[in-house]
Backbone:
């Protein structure tokens, strides 16, 4: 029993190592031979009966050691872009939109499908006011890029369908992987669906709830021509982001200009 478990563990480990070689652009894991994850074979005590069969867990492909090729990380101009993730949120998105409108600047909203389903009127306002849309997955699945390709595709398609249920002719030129946990596979699927994969240049980590001053300082310190700034208008209390934005928008507009992504 212990031997068998050890062997299975080794096999799992080997598969993991082979699949995880650097910038893996090889065949997708979905078409690789199915093998249980290494954890399924550990430890022997976890299987009380030798005849018990354990259903294999869905296999996640490993994250590559570095970001895959093909990510958009700059605006394509001297101007900087503000991107707002995880909304639309009825609490925060209207306030962000008000600030953008007052400053007469356009931003990019990376929206989550389930939020769009709950708040289609907010999506309509985002589009009506001239901002750009980015697909941010159906339910913010951090592991989406590691799943079988058909699952990735279904998730992205479902999200775009929900966006277009709210705004029938909406353009969705970008996809952004939740958590920035990209794989070559998700980039490829997004491309097949006519979406470029949008990463960022500056992450002030507003999701970790620093103060508004800290968010502001982090963005200002790293601001360069063409930078893409990652911010959040959903997924939690965004009062600090909002407070930082009121100053950041003015400064970035003055120093670089703020625009959508070309
Ligand atoms: Zn997100």
Residues:
């Amino acid at each position: 029993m212990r031997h068998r478990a050890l062997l299975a563990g080794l096999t799992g480990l080997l598969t993991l190592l082979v699949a995880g070689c650097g910038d893996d652009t090889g065949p997708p894991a979905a078409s690789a031979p199915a093998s249980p994850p290494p954890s399924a074979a550990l430890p022997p005590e976890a299987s009380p009966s030798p005849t018990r069969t354990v259903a294999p867990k869905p296999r996640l492909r490993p994250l590559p050691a570095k970001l895959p090729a093909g990510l958009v990380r700059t605006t394509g101009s001297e101007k900087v872009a503000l991107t707002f993730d995880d909304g639309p949120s009825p609490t925060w998105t209207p306030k962000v939109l008000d600030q953008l409108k007052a400053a007469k600047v356009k931003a990019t909203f990376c929206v989550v499908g389930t939020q769009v389903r709950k708040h289609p009127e907010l999506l309509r306002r985002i589009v009506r006011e001239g901002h750009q849309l980015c697909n941010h997955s159906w339910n913010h699945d951090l592991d989406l890029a590691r799943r079988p390709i058909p699952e990735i595709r279904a998730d992205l398609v479902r999200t775009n369908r929900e966006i277009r249920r709210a705004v029938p002719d909406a353009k969705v030129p970008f996809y952004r992987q939740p958590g920035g946990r990209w794989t070559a596979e998700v980039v490829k699927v997004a491309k097949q669906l006519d979406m470029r994969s949008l990463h960022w240049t500056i992450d002030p980590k507003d999701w970790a709830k620093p103060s508004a001053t800290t968010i502001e300082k982090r963005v200002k310190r790293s601001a360069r021509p063409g930078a893409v700034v990652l911010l959040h208008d959903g997924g939690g209390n965004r009062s600090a982001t909002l407070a930082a934005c009121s100053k950041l928008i003015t400064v970035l507009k003055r120093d670089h200009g703020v625009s959508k992504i070309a």
Observations:
- Residues 71-255 form a domain with the TIM Barrel fold (CATH 3.20.20.370).
- The chain has two domains: 2-46, 71-255.
- Residues 141 and 178 are 6 Å apart (CA to CA).
